[in-house]
Amino acid sequence: MTGLPDGPSGSLWLRRLRFINWILHPFEVMEARAKKYGDIFAIAKNVSPPMVYLSNPAAIEQVFANPEFFDTSSGNDILLPLVGANSLFLLEGMKHQRQRKLLMPPFHGDRLRTYGQTIWDITTQVSSQWQIGQPITVRASTQEISMRVILSAVFGLDGGERCDRLRKLLTSLLETVSSPLSSMVLFFPSLQKDWGKWSPWGLFLQMKQQIDDLLVAEIQQRRVEMQNLPSSRDDILSLLLSARDEAGQPMTDEELRDELLTLLFAGHETTASALAWAFYWIDRLPAVKEKLQAEIDSLGAHPDPSAIAKLPYLNAVCCETLRIYPIAISPFPRILKVPMEIGGYQLESGAIVVISIYLTHQREDIYPQPKQFKPERFLERQFSPYEYLPFGGSNRRCIGAAFALFEMKLVLANILSNYDLKLASNRSVKPTRRGLTVAPPANMKMVVMSKSKVKSQNSKVLLTSDRT
């Protein structure tokens, strides 16, 4: 066994410049590091505490198999301004286990399927506003769909003044940190200065407080309603209000508020970006589009959401979308509580271990031709949770993973059943920083075409080299 893995060296200022470059160009920076240093490398030499990146499946398995050796709360302080101190992201030990148990049930099994019609109807409502032959900004549309799904399924809000205010505030809050430049404020706490509502951070804090107040008001009103009259509501907030831990205790208003924000930020931005990527790849590759369209059409005019969710090629398209450009590229840094050997390196207590989802998904030995969008990968073999991990893993795997995939499938099936989206430009699209995630460019446009027109043009579609 050896000490720390290899990695770049340099002065403090050089490291900061590299960090800024990573914020702006995360995929390129990580690939360059992996090419030079291998699938386990230190982010910088002679830095205390050391930070080690992993994209080696065997090493990832070691980490996932021993969650008790790691602190996963301290490494996620960057999320504190967005989600609050009671968020599942920032809890550790017994508190984390308690909250996770309370939050898990609404996202699985029969409960998950109750949201199918809501997702379908919201997608129909949003897409019905499109005009045939006119371009749409793809991510704006997918963001509207995912926001309305979250507000309805999670918050139980389908309209009204509070719903409209919350939607506008949430959208505005996310936009304040969405560009590559404005996202810097999340990565550098020294920039988080409140100089009043006219300063960027002051405006952020003001909107965040308004959101907190709206959520607490909704929680308190819902509590009163449920005490006075038994509720048959099936939104996630109502279910969480009824949930009790092993000691018979409910979540507090503050815990509920922070967990609702966690579900919003984890499930809204990520799903919107993934859907935008899916539409991009489907149009770039006519063979994929044709095969997917045929599978969806095979279900008839009014498909059941459960039948859609079981379509194998649709599932493969969604999985490949999340593989090639994972939205969260390196979530949940883990801080070692005890010395541990990982991947042949002896790491000391305090070392920060980061699992790179992107680099793992780009391994040539697992995914031949990793830059190619090939859904067939997920029909030909099953990948281990250490090889394919778009939702993280172990005790930190995203609790909304099943909901996100379910939503992706229904939205894609709905829109592809009624429209064809054609990229306004044949130029390839590069990922861009969007807050803490990576997404398609906000200005990516697609032209809305009717299916009847598409079918008449199918014979003219050629799989040319510039569209692969």
Structure description:
With 468 residues, the protein is an alpha+beta fold. Helices cover 50% and strands 9% of the residues. The chain has 21 helices and twelve strands. The protein has helices at residues 12-24, 26-37, 57-64, 80-83, 93-103, 109-113, 116-127, 138-154, 161-175, 184-187, 200-228, 236-242, 253-267, 269-284, 286-297, 305-309, 312-324, 357-361, 377-380, 401-418, 451-457; strands at 40-42, 51-54, 70-71, 135-137, 334-336, 340-342, 345-347, 352-355, 419-423, 432-434, 437-439, 445-450. The strands form four sheets. It has a five-stranded mixed sheet with strand order 1-2-8-5-3. The longest helix is centred in the middle third of the chain and has 29 residues, at 200-228. It is globular and about 60 Å long. 41% of the residues are buried. Residues 454-468 have low confidence and may be disordered.
Biggest β-sheet description: 5 strands, mixed
What is the molecular shape? globular
Share of residues in strands: 5-15%
Total number of beta strands: 12
Across the major sheet, the strand order is 1-2-8-5-3
Structural class: alpha+beta
Low-confidence stretches: 454-468
Report the end-to-end length measured between terminal Cα atoms.
44 Å
| Tally of helical runs | 21
Radius of gyration: 22 Å
Q: Could you estimate the helical fraction of the residues in percent?
A: 40-55%
- Overall residue-averaged pLDDT value: 88
